[in-house]
Amino acid sequence: MNRDWMKSNIAFTLVDADHEKGVKHSFAHVSKEATPETIVAFGKIVEALTGATVKDVYISETDLIASK
C-alpha cells in the first residue's frame, strides 16, 4: 500500500474587536513542502493585511491510500 499526498489546506482563526470569538480564513493549495515557519510567516502577513491577530492555525492534508 502507498500513501500519496494530494493537497494541503490551512485555516487561520483571527480575532479582533469585531470578532472576539474568532473568524476563520482558509487557504487551499498549500505546498507539500510548507514548513511551520513559513506558515507562521504567512500568518503574520494575514495579520498585517487584516489588522486582526492569529489565534489558531489548522493544517489539513488529503492523502490517497491505494494498493499498487
Briefly say what this structure is.
The protein is α+β, with helices and mostly antiparallel strands. The chain is built from one helix and three strands.
Describe this structure in words.
The chain is of the alpha+beta class and 68 residues long. The protein has one domain. The protein contains one helix and three strands, in the order E-E-H-E. It has a three-stranded antiparallel β-sheet. The termini are close together. The model has no long low-confidence stretch (mean pLDDT 94).
Mean pLDDT: 94
Overall form: elongated
Low-confidence stretches: none
Major sheet size, sense and barrel closure: 3 strands, antiparallel
Radius of gyration: 15 Å
Kindly estimate the percentage of residues that lie in beta strands according to DSSP: over 45%
For the secondary structure, the number of strands is 3
Provide tags for this entry.
single chain, 22% helix, alpha+beta, 3-stranded antiparallel beta sheet, 56% strand
Outline the fold blueprint:
Elements: E1 2-16, E2 19-27, H1 36-50, E3 53-66
Antiparallel strand pairs: 1-2, 1-3
